[in-house]
């Protein structure tokens, strides 16, 4: 699963992954960025993107009807529906909470030739030998220690942690304050709820949703919802 070694380098178009050690993933200074999803989570991602300050944030797109007044109050530009990305030369990050929906929108954008960028709030920390794939969003206080694998479009919300040797599959999500302990594996599209934790060495299956505050003490299979302490499928 580990790709060949490659030094830290800017995350340009076509980059499949990069390895970072003790620093945030590099991005192309001044590259243009669009945030896909203009709801509350979109504004959270915008906070991180603005604090990150390495991109020129063009604005946000959304197929729904976001609160444009809230966006205008902070000087953010609503660019329109997703399809504006078809002709817009810009990187994107997805401010979409659900991993499955994130994957569908990602596939659409890739089919239009767009490239996912990486947004990491300056207070997010990365240990040694962390593999990052396109689309990573790390909000304020997210912490990743060493030898962690972050799949495509992984989202690390506020104060979420992933400890040594953790693997987060493509489109996996750690909600605010979620803690994934050493050597645990979180499957593709799975979500760990706010303030939930996953004990060391366990596996959470693809698409599984761990409820807020749960403590995972046994492996969980794919496609289930598990809540409580200890976390049990319901
Ligand atoms: C687990 C979860 C997905 C279930 O959502 P849901 O399917 O809409 O569930 P409901 O609210 O209908 O609740 C169904 C039952 O599960 C219980 N339940 C729901 N979430 C629970 C949780 N986190 N822990 C314990 N019990 C929970 C409810 O009390 C209810 O029990 P009852 O049938 O005895 O009354 C959701 O409650 C949750 O925890 N989401 C994570 C929230 C989060 O992390 N938000 C951060 C966003 S950035």
Q: How far is the first residue's CA from the last residue's CA?
A: 32 Å
Question: How many helices does DSSP assign?
Answer: 3
Query: Poorly predicted ranges (pLDDT <50, ≥5 residues)?
Result: 1-8
Instruction: Give helix and strand order, one letter per element, not per position.
Output: EEHEHEEHEEEEEEEEEEEEEEEEEEEE
Tell me the total number of β-strands: 25
- The total tally of domains equals 2
Query: What's the CATH topology label of the largest domain?
Result: UDP N-Acetylglucosamine Acyltransferase, domain 1
Structural class: alpha/beta
Strand order of the largest sheet: 7-10-13-16-19-22-24-25
The backbone outline, from C-alpha atoms, is globular
Radius of gyration: 17 Å
CATH level-four homologous superfamily name of the largest domain: Hexapeptide repeat proteins
Name of the level-1 CATH class of the largest domain:
Mainly Beta
Write the CATH architecture name of the largest domain: 3 Solenoid
The proportion of strand residues reads 25-35%
Distinct small-molecule ligands in the complex: coenzyme A
Largest sheet: 8 strands, mixed
Give the integer mean of the pLDDT values.
93
Question: Helix proportion of residues, in percent?
Answer: 10-25%
Binding site for substrate: 97
Site (Increases basicity of active site His): 165
Domain PglD N-terminal: 32-105
Pfam family, one: PglD_N
